[in-house]
Structure formats: C-alpha cells, structure tokens
Design goal:
This protein has about 290 residues and is an alpha+beta fold. About 60% of the residues lie in helices and about 10% in strands.
Length: about 290
C-alpha cells in the first residue's frame, strides 16, 4: 500500500493530472453531446454559451465555438494565474472540444426531465473529476479565479450571475421550457461537483476523553500513522482537569481507531464528527492557481 506522501506525489504528477482531465473532459462532453443538445438544453458557463451560439447560428459547431471563446479567457487568465494551471487547463479545453466534436452518439432519453437530470449528473461528475486535477476544463473557472485573486470577487456569486445572464439570453432562442430544464441541468451539475470534490476529502474528526489518553494516543500514532493533539479540558460538573485527545483520520481507519480506544479503555468517551476538508501534512494541500 502506498504511503500518504507517495499518494500525494502521484496526485501532483503530470500523468495523473492528464488522466483526470481526459476522463473528466470526455465525460462532460458526452453529457452535452449525447443528451443535452438533443433536447436543446444549455449548460452553465462558456460551454453553455457555445451551445447557445450554435443553436442560434448553426455553424461552426459547439466544440469549435468553445475553443474560440476560451482563447481570450486564457490570455486574460495568464496575467493572474500560474503557467502550470493554464497549461493543464489548455489541455482540458482541448479534451472537451475534441470529445465534443467526435461524440455524435444519441443516448435517446425521451423524457425531458430525465434527460435534464442525467445530463446534469454526468456533467457534474465530469467537471468534478477535472477539478480534482491541478487544472480545469476552462471557461468561467478561469475568469472567476482571476477576479477572486485580483478583486476578491466571490466565485460562487460570479458563476450564478453569469448563468442567469446566459439563461436570460437563451430564453428567446430555445424557449422558456428548455431554459427551465437547463436550470435543472445546472443545479444537478453543481450538486455532483460538490459531491465529487468532497467525497475524497471527507475525514473523521475524533475526540476521545479517557484516563488512558496517552496509551491511546501512542497506539494511534503507531498503528494508524495519524498524529494526535492533547487538549486541556475540565469537567463542568466535577471540576476535574483532564486531557481530551483529538485526532483526524481517514474514513476507513474509523473502525480500527474505535477498537484501539475500547481495548485501552472500555469506558472511553468518543466523539466522532465529519469534516469535509483537512489541509496539511498527510492530508490535502490547497491547489495553487497563482
């Protein structure tokens, strides 16, 4: 089994990031080209704008328009964002546009509601996978990050505002019904993006109150490879001073930690909480965009 340091080294490697961008970009393009376009839905962001232009004008095609719209965005983004991030993003854009150009398969989902849900799920999964890399699949994420860096603009609020403008512009082209279905696509996509990004970051924050806290801490550090912190506490009723052991573990280590604590002290008081992100040695590191 790879150590945590080796896993993090893999996560920063070029082949792994290219794989994430390839899988994520292809899945995103598949959701759009095999479902969304056959019902005249638009996704959020720049790809949605490219779809809308294609619906209104026909040629030269969504994939080509997507690349053309991203060119000025990449130029502006180079001023604020790192070269590495933009190179990975350029690759992500090429994957999405190439897959969008090649995929002509119709998934043939008849019901529009089911089509909107399916397109949103696949779109969100693809985008989430791409965002797990050190780059992105292009579009609004570049502008949002640049504005956040320069002017502290809220990324979520910026994306919502741009999508509202896009849906307003889409109404006379695809009709209000398809706009509403497109909102379902965007909502499902955002939900899946959050799920994909958090599913690999969820950890367990554990507090243990026990007279044998030092024995438990030593066993956790030795057997689980996790660090521990002793917090000073005081019983509100007894007024007795005691140490509270705090540690953060991976989800799969929870059962082993419970066994360690119970073997050392069957009366140990254990509190377990979910945490969506842990930054630091042995866990995640914040993505560097600048």
């Amino acid at each position: 089994m790879l150590s945590q340091d080796k896993l993090q080294a893999v996560g920063r490697s070029v082949p792994w990031n290219l794989l994430l961008l390839t899988v994520g970009g292809t899945l995103y393009a598949f959701s759009m080209q095999s479902i969304a376009v056959h019902h005249e839905f638009v996704s959020g962001g720049v790809y949605g704008a490219a779809m809308l232009i294609n619906y209104a004008a026909g040629a030269p095609g969504t994939a080509v328009v997507y690349v053309l719209l991203n060119i000025p965005i990449l130029i502006v983004g180079r001023i604020f964002l790192s070269r590495r991030f933009l190179l990975y993003t350029l690759y992500g854009i090429l994957v999405v546009s190439s897959a969008g150009q090649l995929i002509e398969f119709d998934l043939d989902v008849k019901d529009k509601t089911l089509a909107a849900v399916a397109a949103g799920i696949l779109c969100g999964a693809g985008t989430g996978i791409s965002m797990r890399s050190l780059g992105s699949d292009g579009g609004l994420s570049i502008i949002a990050l640049a504005l956040n860096h320069k002017y502290d603009v809220n990324i979520g609020a910026f994306n919502i505002a741009c999508n509202l403008l896009l849906f307003a512009a889409a109404t006379p082209v695809i009709g209000i019904d398809n706009v509403l279905y497109s909102m379902i696509v965007t909502y499902m996509s955002a939900t899946l993006i959050n799920y994909v990004l958090s599913m690999f970051n969820q950890r367990k924050l554990v507090f243990i109150i026990s007279e044998r806290h030092r024995d438990i801490a030593q066993s956790i550090m030795r057997n689980l490879g996790r660090g521990c912190t002793l917090l000073h506490g005081q019983g509100a009723f007894t007024r007795q001073d005691r140490e509270v052991l705090m540690t953060v573990i991976h989800n799969m280590q929870l059962r082993r930690l419970e066994d360690i604590a119970r073997q050392a002290d069957p009366q140990a008081f254990i509190i377990i909480e979910n945490t969506n992100m842990v930054l630091g040695r042995g866990f995640s590191h914040r993505k560097q965009y600048y």
